C-alpha cells in the first residue's frame, strides 16, 4: 500500500476536492487529519501549522506551485469527465497533456495550487 501526505491550509476543502475527484472515501483522524482512501493508496491531508500557514497565500483560482520535486499521479476512470469537474471543485485545468504507450496524463491544480496529474488508460492503449 502507498501512503501520501499533502499539507493543507484548508483540510476540509482539499479533502472534498480529492474525494470527489477520485470517487474516494474519507475518514477523519485526530488533530484535523483526513484520510482519502483511493484503492490501494491512502492520501493523508494534514493541516499546516499556524506559524507556517500565515505566510501562505491561496488565491482563487489557485496559482500553481511548480517548485516542488514531487507530482502525485492519480488514475481516474474517465479523464474527460474528471477534467469537466476540476473548476467546480476549486481546481484549475492547466491544459498540459502527455501520453505514453499505456496512459494519457493531464496536469491539474488542486484548490491550493498543488500540481497533480490525472491518468487514464484509454481504450486505444489498453493492452490485450
Biggest β-sheet: strands ordered side by side in the sheet? 1-4-3-2
- CATH top level? Alpha Beta
Largest sheet: 4 strands, mixed
User: Low-confidence parts lasting 5 or more residues at pLDDT below 50?
Assistant: none
Helix content estimate: 10-25%
Overall CATH architecture: Roll
Number of helices: 3
Rg calc = 15 Å
Distance between the termini: 26 Å
Principal-axis shape equals: globular
Q: Let me know the average pLDDT.
A: 88
Number of domains: 1
What is the H/E string? EHEEEHEHEEE
Approximate strand percentage: 35-45%
Classified in CATH, the superfamily is 2,3-Dihydroxybiphenyl 1,2-Dioxygenase, domain 1
Derived structural class: alpha/beta
Number of strands: 8
CATH topology: 2,3-Dihydroxybiphenyl 1,2-Dioxygenase, domain 1
Topology overview:
Elements: E1 2-8, H1 11-22, E2 25-28, E3 34-38, E4 41-47, H2 50-53, E5 73-75, H3 79-85, E6 92-99, E7 104-109, E8 115-120
Parallel strand pairs: 1-4, 5-8
Antiparallel strand pairs: 2-3, 3-4, 6-7, 7-8
Amino acid at each position: 500500500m502507498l501512503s501520501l501526505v499533502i499539507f493543507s491550509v484548508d483540510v476540509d476543502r482539499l479533502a472534498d476536492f480529492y474525494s470527489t475527484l477520485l470517487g474516494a472515501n474519507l475518514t477523519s483522524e485526530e488533530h484535523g487529519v483526513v484520510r482519502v482512501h483511493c484503492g490501494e493508496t491512502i492520501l493523508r491531508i494534514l493541516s499546516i501549522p499556524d506559524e507556517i500557514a500565515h505566510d501562505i497565500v491561496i488565491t482563487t483560482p489557485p496559482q500553481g506551485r511548480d517548485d516542488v520535486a514531487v507530482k502525485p499521479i492519480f488514475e481516474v476512470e474517465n479523464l474527460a469527465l474528471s477534467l469537466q469537474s476540476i473548476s467546480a471543485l476549486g481546481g484549475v485545468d492547466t491544459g498540459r497533456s502527455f501520453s505514453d504507450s499505456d496512459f494519457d496524463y493531464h496536469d491539474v491544480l488542486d484548490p491550493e495550487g498543488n500540481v497533480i496529474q490525472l491518468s487514464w488508460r484509454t481504450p486505444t492503449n489498453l493492452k490485450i
